[in-house]
Fold:
Amino acid sequence: MGKEFWKSACPHDCPSGCALEVERLSPTRIGRVRGASGNSYTDGVVCAKVARYAERVHHPDRLKQPLQRVGEKGAGEFRPITWDAALDEIAEAFGRSVRAHGSESVWPYHSGGTMGVVQRYGIDRLRHAFGYSRQQTTICMTPAESGWRAAVGKLMGPDPREMADSDLIVVWGGNPVSTQVNAMTHIAKARKTRGAKLVVIDVYRTPSIEAADIGLVLRPGTDGALALAIMHVLLKEGFADRAYLARYTDFGADVEAHLADKTPEWAAALTGLSVEEIVDFARLYGGTKRSFLRLGFGFTRSRNGSSAMHAVCCLPAITGAWGHQGGGAFFINWDIWRLDLRLAHGLDFMDARTRILDQSRIGPVLCGDLEALKNGPPVTAMLMQNANSANVAPDSASVAKGLSREDLFLCVHEQFMTATAKYADIVLPAAMFLEYDDLYCAFGQTHITAGPRVLDRYEDCRSNHELICQLARRLGSDHPSFDMSATELLDATLRASNRGTWEEAVRQGWIDCGQDFAASHFLDGFPSSDGKFHFKPDWSRVGPYHAGMTALPVHRENFEQASDALPFRLVVPPARTFLNTTFTETPGSISREGEPRALIHKADADRMGIVDGTLVKLGNARGEVRLRARPADTARQGVVIVEGNWPSSAYLDQMGVNVLIGSDPVPPNGGAAFHDTAVWLRVA
Ligand SMILES: Nc1nc2c(c(=O)[nH]1)N[C@H]1C(S)=C(S)[C@@H](COP(=O)(O)OP(=O)(O)OC[C@H]3O[C@@H](n4cnc5c(=O)[nH]c(N)nc54)[C@H](O)[C@@H]3O)O[C@H]1N2
Ligand SMILES: Nc1nc2c(c(=O)[nH]1)N[C@H]1C(S)=C(S)[C@@H](COP(=O)(O)OP(=O)(O)OC[C@H]3O[C@@H](n4cnc5c(=O)[nH]c(N)nc54)[C@H](O)[C@@H]3O)O[C@H]1N2
Ligand code: SF4
Ligand SMILES: [Mo]
Structure:
């Protein structure tokens, strides 16, 4: 058969949401994967890890058949069973759990393995059909989302393609060279055609900082202070657009008075930046109307992350940059799709009174923490899809303890034998995106992209949708959605949403949901309760943990402070060729990343007698991790960086870095403070 490229879409949890072209060598084999050149955001570019997808889809270690545990929980000893027997076991275990503790004792759980409309969120239909516990999906974006919503109202904003029309692009707390390469395509256009400047703000010298004109490397958790000082300079030096502030925002003399003492000197002492760095950047920003803030997640993964996001969003409101082509700020698009998801996600039969458990607090939930359980019954049965919580959730010691509980029935639907799957009673083999149909909302840009099936079924793997439907029928639901194929559900969803049909989406490859200039730049008002941008948000409307939050842009010091006992601050950002723990199994990614390393400042290393490869231990009250050090001058002194969501098996003591991370909810609405940890560091 000749080489042909089939249209597809990247299913992974990445803002780029690339439209793909997959070389299909046969009904069971692919060759190269490339970015669709016809898609104006993807623009023919994909990351290296997805370009090598053949390594993952044809990996010899893929799960091929259902398995039942024979050894200890967590030991990874299993025997093959049939799908029928496995479905019987799950149905029986769910029934037992419901009879003993009520329907909320069953917790179907998902994360971002695939982001598809049906294959990720279809598990919601199972929950709603049987009154199982629901999930607050906080692990990724809730701290950032809370700050953005407090300021702007909805998750939408200027089209990121407009970065090509900007004169100044500020990547704040993100590392797009590693985590969303397509943003760099559009930034490169502006630099080439307009001589635009790129500023990157991070806590260590990432590849994105290396690619920038100006890199600001500050202390972790101090972005709010930097934003406040910039506002101070903008107001003092005449860069504020007073007419814009009056027309579009709730700005007032009280906000201005509050900012009067947030001087560059004040912020320099907190951030570790120099006064000149702060003032120069503020003047550059204030003097540029076409200034685009591309906001990452990184600076919000702190206990003060929502406040920091809110403070940063205030900058274009002061200068009025929101109103200009190539200007404003963008985090993600989550509210532009206008999909009617009632059928696909079972919203019509959801009982709003059913308990909602916090995804990030899976450790405390499984360890019986009553507050985490919302004072309800214990969780005694779980189905996990698209998630590798044993490695990715915070406080992994309690996750491990919870997953090991003898009275917990755990089914994990997976593509590989992950750390989480090893705890399962039943492991089910999952299809990969090339083997199923779905639609993907590319939340870092404006397209819904179609991903029709490219390959035939692999071995005994089933898609998430198939499992959910088969299980629901076993458990006795007669809801018609459980008899529909994925494409039938997708077609019905698109039609109900006035977004065309599945067939049209597949033919075109994608649907551009971008809004026009006026709507995306909020020219007719912001998508908030009163149409205004909020300098003075009502945090109590955003989430329950709002105590101590003020109705002003602020820098909060409620993060884990370094101390004599815990002198280092730890930051744990993504690795370039992994996607969370996905791709930690592919040879191309492993050979590039090597092994987990603690990046430590050369001056700290010299003082402690640490050289490249020295074994060190990082620890705090939550646990300890042993790994090799890499002295570098990439971060500030006193800051340790551990890149990559490595499987715990890659660490010397089989214990990964998330054992050090707290699972307390980030104010005001939850989420995990992955980059906000104080630790000690010793030579091991
Ligand atoms: N290659 C690759 N791509 C990915 C992922 C991956 O694992 N690997 N993960 C995907 C997922 S799920 C997500 S959510 C996105 C995340 O993508 P990003 O938006 O890039 O967010 P983070 O990875 O959390 O952190 C980005 C940067 O924030 C920095 N940072 C940490 N703390 C602070 C701080 O206090 N202030 C400032 N200014 N910066 C700080 C980190 O050092 C890091 O360089 O990427 C997606 N894309
Ligand atoms: N140290 C540290 N920890 C972090 C972060 C960090 O920056 N540092 N980032 C956090 C963030 S932002 C996120 S979003 C989370 C991500 O956490 P997760 O969403 O759990 O991400 P992955 O580790 O990629 O695990 C997804 C799993 O889904 C499986 N999978 C993929 N496709 C399918 C499918 O179609 N069906 C089924 N059944 N399974 C599938 C994959 O094989 C993989 O094992 O991690 C968080 N944890
Ligand atoms: S992981 Fe991100 S950059 Fe890579 S192909 Fe998927 S969407 Fe594109
Ligand atoms: Mo994420």
